[in-house]
Amino acid sequence: MVSSRTLRATLFYSGLALLFLLACYYGSRPQGIHLTSAELLVQDTLGYPPPARTQDWRALQGQWQQVTLPHAPRPRMVPGAGDGGKLPTRTSWYHFTLGPQHVAPPGAYIYIPRWKTDGELAIYIDGRLFYQTHANLQWNGSNRPLWIPLEEAAESTPPRDILVRIRHVRGIGGALSSVWIGDYRQLGAAYYMRAFFQAELPYISSALFLATGVFAFLIWLRSRSESLYLLYAVMTVVTFLRVMHAYMGADRLPISDAWFGWITVNSVGWAVLVTHLFLTALHHHHVRVLTWIITLMCIGFGGITLPLFEGTTDATIISPLMYVTMVAVGSVTFALHIHWSRRAGTLEGAGLAICGLLSFILGARDMLLQNNIINIESLFVSFYAQISLIVVFCQIMLSRYLKAMKAVAESNVVLASSLAEREAELTASHQKLREIERREVLLQERQRLMQDMHDGLGSSLVSTLRMVEHGHIDEADIAQLLKGCIDDLKLTIDSMEPVETDLLLLLGTLRFRLQPRLESTGIRLRWDVRDVPPLGWLDQRHSLHILRILQEAFTNVIKHAGATEITVTTGVRDGCVCVGVADNGKGFDVAATGPGRGLGNQARRAEVIGGRVEMESGQAGTRFSLLLPVEATAGY
């Protein structure tokens, strides 16, 4: 599987990077004055009074004893409270005398790899307070190494006496590593490498992990069915909360020690629960009993240590018991998930479970360090197992995301192919429809021309032929009839020209055809045509009806009116375009008009194109009006 190869490659290169960093760490050993022994004085005290401005180590009451550094007594809880209800504390004084063999160089620093106290720390140089912690008492950044410049440490140079005061809860805390004194060249690399491994690397890894969680959460908001993205986002938050105690505390925390301890200690159980649900979603082997055990563990520990009420058990105080229980439950959980993942063939799940189990194994080693059973100058290594856990988590989600993107890309290819095929089908279908439509138009146009020629030109020629055969017409009448037939033929041909909604172009064509005939009969044509709105429905089929209607109007004037002048006008009336044909001939009674004048035929043609005709006649002449709608009438 590609994802399996990617997982192995990711873990391999991550391991190489970690080995390189560890080589850099162990290669940056500190140099200079190494103080590995000190005089120790232990005093039982109450509360946390601030340290004095000056302190003579010889004035301290008690018995001094020589100890070897690092000095880390085993934690031991002393039950009950001190006098007056104050917290029973203990003050540990570590005194160093710098003899002639320990002369601090110019620009020297004090470097302390680790100090442990659930309280406060103060350092006196030659009897004067030189450094003290100002953060929280419990979570006070003791995981960060101390790096203190000595340029202004004392009036006398170099300093001779160093006194370290550690005040802590009686029974816990009060540990100090060996102390180094040297210049920047001797101690700088060692300090920065240790600060990076103990504090900066856990912070960077958890912060980057949290950033990817925000991205996963945004993906989940778009696709709520993908629960893995939500579990991944929750895991990044839990990891960030868990790692906070590794790098926070150098400055005062925004929350109390009790709340900070509750969050960081209980987050171990939360991490077990979320990882368990995540692995279950990967290999789909769900054991409800195990889920309930982990859930009840988280609820139980979280409930009894919740710092809402006075007297609630502090999570930090019982953290050893909590950690032992969580390590046991977590180890069993991850061991089972390794088995279930391998059985389901989910290598990614098995890798994640292995990293989780490794983190608990190393976490058990860190518990020994925390309880001063092993050298306190060692590193907390469970953070690095947690980094491998983060890497596997990221690789799993990245693999799923890339698979989803690949699936989308493949779907797009299939969709594009289907779309191309559909477009080709639609194009072919459209071409067929256009061909059918073209043939239908040609057929309709052919039928229209045939019908018009049959009703117009053909009828006139047949009538003329019969009159000639029966000898009822002379040559002049024949010539006149033939001219009319020719005019009909020309109008039919003109109607085939595209007019593109332009009525004036159609009227201009009519004028060109009929004006010579009018002039030959002695009738003068007055052309008073103006711009009118375009007729969107006007095409060849409709133009022939208009030409026939107007031709009939001109023919009636020529045959019956006895007029000397015809006036053609255009305008707009009642929302219609009006074409008027007026003559100065003798009028007639419109109501008594028979079918001989062709008015019925004109009305029928006008009705076909959605218009109407009007006739007004009197002694001053006759006016014929053709009213055409600007917009196409429904049904036409």
Automatic annotation (TrEMBL):
Parts of the chain that traverse the membrane: 7-28, 201-221, 228-247, 259-282, 289-309, 321-340, 347-364, 376-398
Key words, A-Z: Kinase, Membrane, Transferase, Transmembrane, Transmembrane helix, Two-component regulatory system
Any one GO biological process: phosphorelay signal transduction system
Alphabetized InterPro entries for the sequence: HATPase_C_sf, HATPase_dom, Sensor_HK_TwoCompSys
Keyword Transmembrane recorded: yes
Top-rank lineage group of the source organism: Bacteria
Gene3D superfamilies (alphabetical): Histidine kinase-like ATPase, C-terminal domain
Residue span, Histidine kinase/HSP90-like ATPase domain: 541-632
Xref: CDD domains: HATPase_UhpB-NarQ-NarX-like (cd16917)
Keyword DNA-binding: no
GO MF: kinase activity
PANTHER family for the chain: NITRATE/NITRITE SENSOR PROTEIN NARX-RELATED, SIGNAL TRANSDUCTION HISTIDINE-PROTEIN KINASE_PHOSPHATASE UHPB
Protein name: Signal transduction histidine kinase
